[in-house]
Amino acid sequence: MCHCVLPSPDAVSARTVICYATNWPQYRPGQGKFRMSDVDPSKCTIMVFAFAKVVGNTLDNYEENDVGPNGQYMQFTNLKRQHPQVKTLLGVGGWNHGGDPFSAMAATARGRAEFIRSTIDYLRRYKFDGLDLDWEYPKANDKQNLVSLLQELRQAFDAERAQGRPPLLLLMAVAAGLQNAVPAYDVPALNRYVK
């Protein structure tokens, strides 16, 4: 995976350091086990909680303890108390997620609209500063649907900002290999919508 599409300079500081924190180290034995509250965000400008998943046309958590009053999401977003300069994003997808849930959701304007509405609600409910879309390996026929999804997400995020809400960032991780990236991504179009 590669963050080949980065936020615009006006969205974040000139030196952007994106860090991923995964929700599975809580299951490691012994010294390797840690929870989100153990993460040190001091070297990061953007931290991404990896990962949530697409279920139907909505976001959903992977682990039961991701949500709740002392869940992994809250532990993660609470890291901003000591490091208020850090932006916390929710990553959706990833290599293990597969592309089919994204493909089904993005195939129709109705599916995208439902995903966007529910995503904004989800991000606000759990106090995230934005979304990191990790749609790994879209198929060639998903190429335009991915552009439409990002365009519509950007429009919805901007409309919220115009109403005085804190701005939501939109980032995207893409496949690094040219054999996967070239047929799947319209990079110039995608770059217009992430920041």
Whole-angstrom Rg: 16 Å
Integer average pLDDT = 89
What proportion strand? Answer: 15-25%
Per DSSP E runs of 2 or more residues, the count of β-strands stands at 7
Task: Specify the overall morphology.
Answer: globular
Listing every helix as H and every strand as E from the N terminus to the C terminus, the arrangement reads: EEEEHEHHEHEHH
**CATH level-1 class:** Alpha Beta
Largest sheet: 7 strands, mixed
Poorly predicted segments: 1-13
* CATH topology label: TIM Barrel
What is the share of helical residues? Answer: 25-40%
Number of helices: 6
How many angstroms does the end-to-end distance come to?
A: 18 Å
| CATH level-four homologous superfamily name | Glycosidases
Structural class: alpha/beta
Estimate nothing, just give the exact number of structural domains. 1
Label the CATH architecture. Answer: Alpha-Beta Barrel
Domain GH18: 15-195
InterPro entries: Chitinase_II/V-like_cat, GH, Glyco_hydro18_cat, Glyco_hydro_18_chit_AS, Glycosyl_Hydrlase_18
GO molecular function: chitin binding; chitinase activity
Family: Belongs to the glycosyl hydrolase 18 family.
